[in-house]
């Protein structure tokens, strides 16, 4: 028997073993969702190929699946729940767009927790609220939550107002101002300026170009570049940074920003107790409040601080900017909404004078516009949950309910776009209509732009 024949036979045997193993894992994944009706594909919804290829039946769901399908898959199913499974990787999920079911899986006492395995890549920034669960999540949340205070919210308001006024003053002398890309040229820079001052206590709009000793970039350059290249440290191995000039600069910016943050943390924590108290009372920026946040003498470590700062501030500024850019686009498309908003602001100013943070609750139509924008364009389309033990959950409302047996480790994807476009809860769901949120009885269970339960957005006001 020749060596080449043995090699071929061994290769075939290995291939056969791998295929049998893959088949068994795929069958196990299907069993976790009880072979629930839905989509079956070769490549999974979160896989690289699944996000590169267009939709090909039985091969991939395609790019931007949650945006393309919205509520249509649930209409075909005739239910607020749907099953998907794939071979590469061998995994399965329930897609959930039912208010009762979403509420059930959003609370840990119902035997469901956030599936932090889906966020493993974000651990590259350091331990943070997004990637921890259980007692560690409770600890970090308990320490960090007080930093999101009314005083910090007021600082955000005042800072945003200041920068918008500066921007308008710059435009006013000109006959016309052209903004080629609302997001890149307006929303992102404005959001970054607000985040820098209200988040870090640093005014990058007037910052000096001098590079401090021990640094290679200014804080402004490091923050600006790092915020635009958030994804690179999570995707590129260390040896790959040098292959492109832009990547090399991005790597330098991320390293520099971490160095700046460590210096800022140490400088604040080296202050004496009285100096520390004076600084806490004088500066309400989020970074400052997080540095000194503590509970029963427990405080966030340096790495935890940096991890949470990256998630809260640097990642947060991008979602804020995108929402702002979409609102501006919708205002242009719906001038009647713009006029109604202007009318409410003018009426409030005639009654209260110049509006400040204390008047925010009176800006009901502005809040309705934000909510309606987030209903149509939620910044997080899928929220992963996982069963901690064998359990059940029910979808639908009596008398049309369906109870599912759910084994431990079963994965559930809360599908915000599916719920937000459900005509059962939103009349003419494809239409932009802020007035639906002016009704005090709007369906709060069918709106999950900020998530639900204890894992809901910590900064929601």
From TrEMBL:
Q: Which residues form a coiled coil?
A: 250-282
The protein's GO terms of the molecular function aspect are:
heme binding; iron ion binding; monooxygenase activity; oxidoreductase activity, acting on paired donors, with incorporation or reduction of molecular oxygen
Pathway assignment:
Secondary metabolite biosynthesis
Which cofactor is essential here?
Answer: heme
Q: Name one Pfam family in it.
A: p450
The family database entries (PANTHER family) matched by this protein are listed as: CYTOCHROME P450 (PTHR24305), CYTOCHROME P450 12A4, MITOCHONDRIAL-RELATED (PTHR24305:SF166)
**Protein name (database record):** Cytochrome P450
Q: What highest taxon heads this organism's lineage? A: Eukaryota
Would you identify the family this protein belongs to, as annotated? Belongs to the cytochrome P450 family.
What InterPro entries does the record point to? Cyt_P450, Cyt_P450_CS, Cyt_P450_E_grp-I, Cyt_P450_sf, Cytochrome_P450_monoxygenase
Which keywords belong to this entry?
Coiled coil, Heme, Iron, Metal-binding, Monooxygenase, Oxidoreductase, Signal
Q: Signal peptide location in the record?
A: 1-31
- Which residues bind heme per the record? 457
């Amino acid at each position: 028997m020749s060596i080449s024949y043995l090699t071929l036979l061994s290769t075939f045997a290995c291939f056969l073993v791998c295929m049998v193993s893959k088949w068994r894992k795929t069958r196990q994944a299907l069993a976790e969702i009880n072979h629930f009706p839905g989509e079956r594909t070769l490549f999974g919804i979160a896989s690289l190929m699944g996000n590169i290829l267009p939709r090909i039946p039985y091969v991939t769901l395609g790019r931007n699946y949650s945006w393309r399908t919205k509520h249509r898959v649930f209409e075909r199913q005739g239910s607020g729940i749907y099953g998907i499974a794939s071979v590469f990787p061998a995994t399965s999920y329930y897609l959930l767009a039912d208010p009762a079911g979403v509420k059930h899986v959003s609370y840990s006492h119902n035997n469901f927790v956030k599936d932090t395995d889906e966020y493993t890549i974000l651990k590259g920034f350091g331990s943070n609220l997004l990637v921890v669960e259980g007692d560690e999540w409770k600890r970090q949340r308990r320490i960090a939550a007080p930093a999101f205070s009314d005083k910090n919210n007021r600082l955000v308001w005042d800072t945003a107002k200041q920068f918008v006024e500066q921007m308008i003053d710059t435009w006013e002398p000109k006959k016309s101002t052209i903004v080629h890309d609302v997001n890149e040229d307006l929303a992102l820079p404005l959001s970054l300026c607000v985040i820098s001052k209200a988040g870090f206590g640093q005014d990058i709009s007037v910052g000096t170009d001098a590079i401090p000793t021990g640094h290679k970039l200014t804080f402004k350059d490091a923050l600006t570049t790092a915020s635009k290249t958030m994804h690179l440290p999570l995707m590129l191995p260390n040896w790959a940074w040098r292959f492109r000039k832009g990547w090399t600069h991005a790597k330098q910016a991320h390293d520099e920003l971490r160095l700046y943050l460590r210096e800022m943390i140490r400088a604040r924590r080296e202050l004496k107790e009285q100096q520390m108290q004076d600084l806490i009372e004088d500066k309400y920026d989020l970074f400052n409040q997080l540095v000194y946040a503590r509970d029963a003498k427990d405080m966030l470590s340096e790495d935890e601080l940096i991890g949470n700062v990256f998630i809260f501030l640097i990642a947060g500024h991008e979602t804020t900017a995108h929402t702002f850019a979409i609102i501006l686009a919708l205002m242009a498309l719906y001038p009647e909404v713009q006029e109604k908003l202007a009318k409410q602001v003018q009426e409030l100013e005639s009654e209260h004078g110049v509006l400040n943070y204390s008047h925010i609750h009176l800006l009901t139509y502005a809040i309705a516009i934000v909510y309606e924008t987030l209903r149509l364009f939620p910044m997080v389309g899928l929220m992963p949950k996982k069963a901690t033990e064998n359990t059940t959950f029910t979808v639908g409302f009596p008398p049309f309910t369906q109870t599912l047996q759910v084994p431990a480790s079963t994965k559930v994807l809360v599908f915000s776009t599916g719920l937000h476009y459900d005509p059962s809860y939103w009349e003419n769901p494809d239409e932009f209509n802020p007035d639906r949120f002016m009704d005090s009885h709007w369906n709060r269970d069918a709106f999950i732009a900020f998530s639900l339960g204890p894992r809901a957005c910590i900064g929601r006001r």
